[in-house]
């Protein structure tokens, strides 16, 4: 018997909105949901494992992958390194009936919409601008200049909310995850 293909869910939203936290909560509750692993040209950070956190590739290999059309989406991030979502694993999981989740930025979501318009596009929004700023500052991972750059990008990303099929406000991680699970059509647990 053939497996019914699953539908791809794309989760996007501004910096510090909690995309990674919500995605991790979905996976903790539904380990069968496949979370795409991006390819990148940057070096691994301490503790990162190739093939688990990212697929670490050389710039030359990334160029080959772009030329061969192996990415659903890709971009230069922060003007330095390239990141992309390999197409093959996404399609393989969907064909096998495995629910797949992409956690990407606005530009990536737009590219995926062009390549796979039947995907489900979900915008994760902050409860307020002030809360988004608080979360970004609270992470403590960016200096003031980088925070301002990310906040400028966040303003553009927030303005694109209407491009998405669903909006989920991340005012509480468990509640936001519950809503994403419902949108994805996963069986309640």
Tell me about this structure:
The chain is of the alpha/beta class. The chain has one domain (8-184): Rossmann fold, CATH 3.40.50. Helix content is 41%, strand content 20%. It has helices at residues 19-29, 59-67, 87-95, 106-115, 129-139, 144-159, 173-184, and strands spanning 8-12, 34-35, 39-40, 55-56, 71-77, 81-86, 100-103, 120-125, 166-169. The strands form two sheets. Strands 2-7-1-8-9 form a five-stranded parallel β-sheet, sandwiched between helices. Strands 4-3-6-5 form a four-stranded mixed β-sheet. Strand 5 and strand 6 (81-86) form a beta hairpin. It is globular, with a radius of gyration of 16 Å. The mean pLDDT is 90.
Low confidence ranges: none
Please give the alpha-carbon distance between the first and last residues. 27 Å
Mean pLDDT score, rounded?
90
Number of strands: 9
> Which fold name is given in CATH as the topology?
Rossmann fold
Q: Please trace the helix and strand order, writing H or E for each element.
A: EHEEEHEEHEHEHHEH
Number of domains: 1
Largest sheet: 5 strands, parallel
CATH level-two architecture:
3-Layer(aba) Sandwich
Any idea what the radius of gyration is? 16 Å
Residue fraction in strands: 15-25%
Tell me the name of the CATH homologous superfamily.
Answer: P-loop containing nucleotide triphosphate hydrolases
Order the strands across the largest sheet as they lie in space: 2-7-1-8-9
Helix content: 40-55%
Number of helices: 7
Q: What structural class do the secondary elements suggest?
A: alpha/beta
Gross morphology is: globular
**What is the highest CATH level, the class?**
Alpha Beta
